[in-house]
Amino acid sequence: MIQALRWLAAICAVGVVLAWFALGAHRGWTKTSVAIEKIDPVTEIVGYEMQSRFVPGVDFLVVGLGGSAGIFVLSLVLSKFLTKKNHP
Amino acid sequence: MKKTLLTLTAAAVAVSAHAETLTFDFKDPKGVNNVSFLADAPLESIHGLASGVSGTVTIDTDKPAEAKGKIVVATESLKVPNPTMQEHLLGKDWLNAKAHPEITFEIKKISDIEREGNKGSADVTGTFTLNGVSKEITVEAKVTYLPGRLAERSPTKTPGDLLVIRSEFSIKRSDFNIQPGKNLDKVSDEIEIELAIAGAAPKS
Fold first, then answer.
1. Confidence of residue B31 (pLDDT cuts 50, 70, 90)
2. In B, which residues are within 8 Å of A27 by CB distance?
3. Mean pLDDT across the stretch B44-72?
4. A38/B contact by beta carbon, under 8 A
5. A47 CA to chain B: closest CA distance, Å?
6. What is the distance in angstroms between the Cα of B112 and the nearest Cα belonging to chain A?
7. Are B40 and B188 within 8 A, CB to CB?
8. How far apart are CA B116 and CA B120, in angstroms?
9. Diameter of chain A by CA atoms?
């Protein structure tokens, strides 16, 4: 159980970092849409079209790594609790 | 005598055909018209876009200083890429989009016109209304008049002219009662606005 929690924490941490890198390693806030440029050939106006796209930012990293750390801390607490229970 | 009269009539027609009063509609069916805004903020600047542009400008091509009109941006059309920011932006503590559904600029005066062919620039003074607060501001605008080019943009090949307006200016959000003196560590007081819009004047 404790080992499983520690593995889960490690997998979550690695997964969050990999996902952040794979989706653009954006160092700002998480975006759920991005502006795509389109140029009108007649007026030469550069217009933008908002497209739905998930771009994780540093807040995604903080929440993801924080969650992983939380799971790891939980495994430590459980480990101490079980040690005390088995060896009173 | 007859020849002179014909020449004068032709000249009068030519002058009247040249000096036209045109009304340009800025509701763009192609969805290219846009207004963008940039606010400085920690971590990264907030870059937003507004696409819901409408309004009209009436202009006499020979007397551009007398142009009148109003550009309207639907507040709900303002978009920022982060969903939480989007909610806050349109919420009642910031732009209060439900109570103030439009951001407008109404032209009052045009001065310092510089013209070169179909392009020109001018200082445009008008009433800018944001968050229900109206304030007179002067912005520099660059204008391009594209006679007979509407058909190239129109799916129905409607003949007519185009007027392209570009402008960059900045405002202080505190002047428009948007969280005055508050959250300055999160969003700067100064907001940069960039506008690039095209209006169409169809001719039958």
1. confident
2. 43-44
3. 92
4. yes
5. 5
6. 24
7. yes
8. 6
9. 82
A37 touches chain B (CB under 8 A): no
* B167 C-beta neighbours (distance < 10 Å), count: 19
Reading phi first (left if > 0) and then psi (alpha if -120 to 50, else beta), residue B96 is in left
Chain A residues in contact with B152 (beta carbon < 8 A): 42
The pLDDT value recorded for residue A83 is: 84
The pTM of this model reads 0.82
B→A interface, C-beta within 8 Å:
30-34, 36, 43-44, 47, 49, 51, 79, 81-83, 85, 144, 146, 149, 152-153, 162, 164, 166, 196-198
**3-state SS string for chain B:** CHHHHHHHHHHHHHHHHHCCEEEEECCCCCCCCEEEEEECCCCCCEEEEECCEEEEEEEECCEEEEEEEEEEEEHHHEECCCHHHHHHHHCCCCCCCCCCCEEEEEEEEEEEEEEECCEEEEEEEEEEEECCEEEEEEEEEEEEEECCCHHHHCCCCCCEEEEEEEEEEEEEHHHHCCCCCCCCCCCCCEEEEEEEEEEEEECC
Q: What average pLDDT score do residues A60-81 get?
A: 94
Q: What is the ipTM of this complex?
A: 0.76
What tokens were used for B104?
Answer: 């407008």
Chain B residues in contact with A31 by the CB 8 A cut-off are: 81-82
Q: What is the pLDDT of residues B48-58, one digit of tens each?
A: 999 899 999 99
Handedness of CA B83, B77, B138, B134 (dihedral sign): negative
Do A45 and B81 count as a contact with CB atoms less than 8 A apart? no
